[in-house]
Design brief:
The protein is of the alpha/beta class. The chain is built from seven helices and eleven strands. Bound molecules: S-adenosylmethionine (SAM).
Length: 234
């Protein structure tokens, strides 16, 4: 089953994303934003209802049936997140846009398409997390940034792993959070609620120069996530 969390949970995990978007709109007049692993898309709609036509928002899912406007509105009304005002809003506005693609492959967007991207509870299911990190950097505009939750909370880390995204360097294997200390454009962050995420700040070049070592399914076989290990390319 796909979890479709609301903005309040996103803000708990990744901090006040609304403020980041409001600042971009104040500076540029508009903001172009991508959610990676949007589920039904309730959060995209909450943000769109707040910023209206100043926000162009796209959602990416691997499975088409996981998200679309109608599903999001139905679930949002059922959960009490959306009311009549939201339904009326979409009688007069175009809806958020959904795309279907594997976030671990090439992202289906031109270089420099977005001011901001975010992702929660999705990257654990993505195979090539390093490629995704480089792709996120590619699709950001100069000055753009992204907040990406790459791990699960410790209580969900079933299997013999403490991190789903690891790098072999200097004979040691370390988590991406420990590794990015030395990487320009990537920062390991922790939200006020204690949730770890990776911040990507746009750079002209790929932030990660690594090659895959292994991809291994871990956790619940019904809904497995993937431990992705890389080595540094000299
Ligand atoms: C557990 S749900 C989380 C949904 C939402 N972010 C939330 O927090 O409620 C994972 C979402 O990620 C998407 N997803 C999983 N693997 C993906 C991949 N490789 N590429 C793109 N989307 C993926 C699924 O389609 C699903 O919508």
């Amino acid at each position: 089953m796909v979890r479709n969390r609301t903005y309040e949970e996103l803000a708990r995990r990744l901090g006040p994303v609304e403020t980041i978007i409001a600042d971009i709109i104040e500076r540029n007049g508009t903001a172009s934003v991508l959610e990676i692993g949007a589920g039904s898309g309730i959060i995209m709609h909450q943000l769109h209802l707040k910023f209206a036509d100043a926000l162009e928002i796209y959602g990416l899912n691997r499975q088409f049936h996981h998200g679309n406007h109608q599903l999001s509105m139905e679930e949002g009304v059922e959960f009490g997140t959306f009311d009549e005002r939201a339904v009326r809003f979409y009688e007069a506005h175009r809806t958020p846009m959904y795309l279907c693609a594997d976030a671990g492959a090439s992202l289906p967007f031109a270089d420099g398409s977005f001011d901001f991207a975010y992702s929660q509870a999705t990257i654990p299911f993505v195979r090539d997390k390093a490629n995704l990190t480089n792709e996120v950097n590619r699709i950001l505009r100069p000055g753009g940034s992204a907040r990406i939750q790459v791990n699960l909370p410790p209580k969900f880390m079933l299997g013999d792993t403490d991190s789903l995204f690891k790098i072999e360097a200097g004979g040691n294997v370390c988590s991406i959070e420990a590794f990015v200390d030395t990487v320009d454009g990537l920062t390991a962050m922790t939200s006020e609620a204690g949730v770890q995420y990776l911040e990507v700040d746009k750079r002209p070049q790929n932030p990660l120069n690594v090659a895959p070592v292994s991809f291994e399914y871990v956790g619940d076989p019904e809904c497995p996530y993937i431990e992705s290990i890389y080595r540094l390319i000299a």
